Amino acid sequence: MSSALDHAMIDKIAAEFDDELIGMRRDIHRHPDLAGEERRTSALVAERLRAAGLAVATGVGGHGVVAVLDGPGEGPTVAYRADMDAVDDDELFECAFASQVPGAAHLCGHDLHTTVGVGIAMVLARLRKRLNGRVVFVFQPAEETCEGARAMIEDGVLERTAPQEIYALHCGPLPVGTFAVGPGQPGQDRFRIELAGPGAADEAKRLVAMIDGWSTVGRPQTPGQLQQLMDDTQTPDGPLARFVYALSHASSGEDGVRVHAYLRAWPDDRYPEIRDEVQRRVDAIPGARVQFTEQPFPAMVSSPDLSAAAATYLRGALNEDAVTVLHAAYPFNGDDFAYFLHQVPGAMFYLGVANPDAGINGLPHSPDFAADEHAIGIGVRAMAGFLSHRLDALA
Fold it and tell me: Domain segments of the chain: what residues?
């Protein structure tokens, strides 16, 4: 089957589902489920996948859903992961399908991630006789709390399905109709410093200033700053080749003062040196002690080779200008897809959902996050073709 025929077939089938998928996304957006509470969303996903003819398992690692689509014969297995949970916040962007759940909103685009995943499954199910192997769809709970991926892995999802490669999409502040491939996303570390005595408050102020001063990058506050940041991610050996982003604050209690700190660093091997510096500073303060999390949350590192393969495929399927190559990680977000990539080769790609002319910024975790819904069909078509392409390459 030629790639041109493949693209045309996928596009024809996907067009039949465009309106249905937009309706599904709006339904999920109106009724967001917080991490660990994805009952409604997972039930909707399972219903759509069973209707498409996939073998579906529910309750995996919490409210996770795993669906299997087999081609006509033996062959390799590739997996696709989508996260389902919402953010514990209220949205500011006004739309006709705004969240009806106070304190919960899809401000990270997981409603689109889920819908795209279902759409890919629906399209490939119609083409199953032409698949050279198996596609496993992993709909993950509790990404926002960094718990869902580990829970699904501990529940045996990778052992049971044994994928050779795994992929995911994430919304990004790129023009709708485009994609980006890149190195991944940073991990994170947290620690708490406890101080006592009459000088504790002053020591806490100095520690907060020191920790915040480690930041080499700040969150963009204007469109121009956001554009500069995106330009920096595309610059080889640029200002984001190595970075630290740190936030801290002090709180007082009956037993003294505590400094709570959070930081992200790239590359991932920088956390030990940062911990050593924190320990050295704390040891110099009489009576102070520091408590670190057991281990830093790991960075999500995409395979360079598989990212390059995706860029080549997407440029052929869409157009030469449809793919941006990132040379640095976006500093302010992580993803527990990291745990899957520590077990299976794969990559995360970024789906452009921004449309400035419509006032849609596409910036995940911003209070006014919004996404152009045309991105749903684009993501479905591109990833359905790419997953089929990877099965052919592995076969």
Answer: 3-184+298-394, 188-221+236-292
Nearest to 207 by CA among 295, 296, 288, 268: 288
Q: Which residues, other chains included, contact 124 with Cβ-Cβ below 8 Å and sequence gap of 6+?
A: 69, 131, 135, 384, 387, 388
For tokens 């073998």, the residue is: 55
Closest Cα partner for 246 from 289, 206, 290, 216?
216
Domain 3-184+298-394 fold = Aminopeptidase (3.40.630)
| DSSP letter for each residue of 147-195 | -HHHHHHHTTHHHHH--SEEEEEEEEEEETT-EEE-SEE--BEEEEEEE
Q: Using CA atoms in the order 56, 52, 24, 132, what is the torsion angle rounded to 10 degrees?
A: 80
**pLDDT-above-90 percentage for the chain:** 90
Asked if the bond preceding 102 is cis, omega within 30° of 0, the reply is no
CATH number for the region 188-221+236-292 comes to: 3.30.70
Q: Tens digit of pLDDT for each residue in 356-383?
A: 999 998 989 988 899 999 999 999 999 9
**Quick check: 270 pLDDT over 70?**
yes
Instruction: Count CB-CB contacts under 10 A for residue 243.
Output: 19
